[in-house]
Amino acid sequence: MIRAQARRQLSNHSAAITTPIHSDTDPAVVRFLDAVWAERGLSPNTLAAYRADLTALSRWLGERHVPMMQTSHTDLQHFIESRVQAGARPRSTARQLSSFRRFFRYLLREGVIQEDPTAQIAMPKIGRSLPKSLTEEEVEALLAAPAVRDPLGNRDRTMLEVLYATGLRVSELVNLRYAQVNLNQGVIRIVGKGNRERLIPLGDEAVRWLNEFVHGARDEILLDRQTDYLFPTRRGDRMTRQAFWHIIKRYARKAGIAKGLSPHTLRHAFATHLLNNGADLRVVQILLGHSDLSTTQIYTHVASERMKELHSLHHPRG
Question: Under 8 Å CB-to-CB from 172, ≥6 apart: which residues?
Answer without folding.
Answer: 190, 192
